[in-house]
Amino acid sequence: MRRIALTLMALLVAMPAFALDLGTPLKDPAAEARARALFSELRCMVCQNESIGESNAQLAADLRQLVRERIAAGESDDQIKEYLVARYGDFVLLKPPLEPRTLLLWGTPLLVLTLGALGAVLALRRRPIPATSTTSLTEAETAELDALIAEDER
Amino acid sequence: MIAECGHYALVLALALALVQGVVPFIGARRNDAALMGVGEGTATGQLVFIGAAFAALSWAYVVSDFSVLNVIQNSHSSKPLIYKLTGVWGNHEGSMLLWVLILAVFGAAVAVFGRNLPPVLKADVLAVQGWIGAAFLIFILFASNPFVRVAPAPFEGQDLNPLLQDPGLAVHPPLLYLGYVGFSIAFAFAVAALIEGRIDAAWARWVRPWTLGAWIFLTLGIAMGSYWAYYELGWGGFWFWDPVENASLMPWLAGTALLHSALVMEKREALKVWTVLLAILTFSFSLLGTFLVRSGVLTSVHAFAVDPLRGSFILVILALFVGGSLTLYAARASSLRQGGLFAPISREGALVLNNLLLTTAAATVFVGTLYPLALEALTGGKISVGAPFFNATFGPLAMALLIAVPFGPLLAWKRGDLFWAAQRLWFAAGAALLGGAGTWLYERGGPALAPLGFALGLFVLVGAFAELVERTRLFRIPLGDSLRRARGLPRAQWGSAFAHAGLGITLMGIVAATSWSAEQIEALKPGGTIAVAGKELTLDSIGPRHAENYVDLAARFTIREGGTVVGHVESAKRTFAARQMTTTEAGLVSFGPSQLYVSLGDVQDDGSIAVRVQWKSWVLLIWGGALFMAFGGVLSLADRRLRVGAPKRARNAIPVPAE
Fold this sequence. Notes:
The complex is a heterodimer of chains A (154) and B (659). Chain A has six helices and no strands. Chain A has 154 residues and is mainly α. The relative contact order of chain A is 0.08. Helix content of chain B is 63%, strand content 12%. Chain B has a five-stranded antiparallel β-sheet with strand order 2-3-4-5-6, with no helix packed on it. The model of chain B is unreliable at 645-659 (pLDDT under 50). Chain B has 659 residues and is α+β, with helices and mostly antiparallel strands. The longest helix of chain B has 33 residues, at 347-379. At the A-B interface, helix 1 and helix 5 of A face helix 7, helix 8, helix 9, helix 13 and helix 14 of B.
C-alpha cells in the first residue's frame, strides 16, 4: 500500500526493472513481429497494468516463451488468445472482448457521441425565446451604468 | 516543537476555512459588504497558515528529524538536500499538504487579484473555495496527518523511493497539482453563478484566465510526467494508459473543452448552461483523480478495503462536492438559459464539435479506467482494460478532432463558410501530403497508416497558422504591411495558433516514435559493438561509480556513424543503498528530434552485460508539442482583454493568476 502510494504519487505504476531479456526471438522476422504484436495485447497478470512485452516478471517471460512456441507451431493469433483465455480468463487480454458484460464499456464512446450530437442538434433547432425583459441588471449596476454614461457625456 | 507548530497552523487554517465557507456566503445573501469582505482576509490567512505548516514539514525533512513518522518513512540523512525537499511531497501525507497549499494559493490569488469582481460573486467564489479547503484540511488532520511523532526516534530513515529521486519529481507533482487544483476556481465560479442564478459574458471572461492558467500547468505537468517515465522507467515508453495517467488526462480533456466553450460564451453568450456544467465536471475529474491516486482503489478493490479510512474519506468529499454541485446544477440550470443564435457551420458550431469530441474522449477514458473496478465490485469478474482498448476507442476520436482543428478558427462566428475555409487549407493539405510522402520514403517500412498519421500532424501544424496568414494577408500585400498586421493581432489568436500547432507536433512525434523506432538487444563485453538504425555503439568501459547515497554501474559507449565518431553516451544501473533498489539511468543522445536510448540489463556470468539500444524516431516532438501548447496558453493569457478588466477599465491592471 505504501509503496503503491509512492509510485502512484509520481503518476505512474511501473517497476524499476525493465524487460530487457525478451527471450530468444523467432528466426522468421514476420513471425517474431507477430509475437511482438501479441505481447503488447496480453497482460502480465502479476504486474500492475503491464503487458508481457513490458514486464520483467518471470510469468511474463514464460508467457513470451509460450506465445513464441505456439506461433512456431503454426497457431493463429486467435487460437493463442483462446488458449490463454481458457487458462487465465479474460483478465489476460488488455483489450477485453465484446460480450454482454463489456457492452457498456465498448458502447460508451458511441453512446456519448450519439447522445451528445442529438442534444446539440436539438438545442440548435430550438428557437430560443427572445428576451422580453431586461431584468438581468441589478439596481446597483443600473446606477453604475448611469454614472458611466454621465461621465462619458461630460 | 516545529512539527507541532505546523500541526497547529493546520488547525488554525481549518478554522479560517470554516469561517470563509460561512461568513462571506451569509454576507452575499444579505448583501452585507462587511461580511462579504471577511473572505479576503481568511483566504490570505489560510495561505499564511498552510504555508507555515508546509514550511514546518519541509524543515523536518531538511534537518532529518526522524521523530516525525513521515520523515522516517520517506527520507534518509544521506539523501541530497534537493531530494530531501522534494521528498516532502513524494508521499501521501506530504502531497495532500501540497494539494491544500496550492488550493490556498489560488484562494488568496482570487482575494488579492479579484478586485474588479462584483462583491457578491467574489464572496460566493471564496465561500466555495472555503468549503473545498475545509474538507481537505479535515481529511489531512483526521486521516492523513504528516506531523505524527514516533518515540523513540530511530537513528535513520527508510529513504525515499529511488524512482522518485529525480529532478523530474521535483517539478512534476507541483505542476500537476497547480493544474488539478487550479480548476477549483472555475468550479467555484460555476457554483457561485448557480447560487446567484445569474451568468453572463463577463463571467466567462473572469473565469477564463484561471482556467487557462490551470490548463497550462496541467499540460506541462502531464508532459513532464510522460518524459520522466520515458527516461526513468528504462524502456522508453511515453504513455501507458495507466489509470493514474488517465486520472490526469480526464481533467485535461474536460478542461480543454471548458476553455473552448467559455470562448463561445464570452464572445456570443451561447452555451452558458453547458459551460457551467463543464466547469463542474472538470474539477470533478480533478477530485476523482485525487481519489483514484490517493485511495489505493486502483490496485484492486481489495486493497481499498484493507485500509478504507482514507479512501472512504476522499470518496465522501468527492460525493459531497460532485453530487452537491450537480444537484445545484439540475435545480438552477434552467434559470440560466439564454444565448446567441448560430448556424451549424460556424465558429460556434466548430467549438460545439470540439466539445462533443473532447467530452466523448473524456467519457471513454473515464469508463475505461473505472470499468474493471466497477465490474469486479459488482460481479467479481476480472477484466483488463489496457492500451489496446484505448488505442481502438480514444484513437479515432482524437483523429476526428485533429482533422477538424484547422477548420475551426477559419469559420466566422454565427455563420461560416466551410468551402471558403477548405480553400484556405489547400496549402496545408498539400504540404501535409508532400511531407507524409517524404517521410515515408525517408523512413521506409512501418505500418501503412503511419505516413497518413504523420501527414495529419503536419496538416494540423501548418493549418494552425492558416488563420494568421489570412488575417495578415501574407504574400498578398507587402511583407512589411503583413508584419504590422501581425503585430496588431490579438495575442489570443497567436496563442490558439501555437497551441493547435503543438497538437500537430505531438501527433507527429507519437506516430513517428511508435512506427519508425528500432531496437537491438545484445550482451556486450568491453570493445563489443551493437548497431541500430545506422549507428554503431562500442562499449568502451564499464565500472562502478560511487555517489552520496547510491552506486552506479556505468557503461560508456562511443557512437559511430559510417566509421566516424558522432558522440558518446553513458548508461547506468543505479543501486540505492538504503532500500537496496535498482533503477535504470538510461543514456540518451539526441540526433535532431530523434534519440538513441541506451539501457543496461544484467551482468551475465561471462562478464558481459546486456545492452538494449533503441532508436526513437522524432520522439522529442511529443513533448516539444506540449511545450508549444503551453506557450500558446501563455500567449493567450497575455491577451489584452484578459489583462484589462472586464467590467471597468481597471487602472490597476489585473495580473494573470499564474505568475
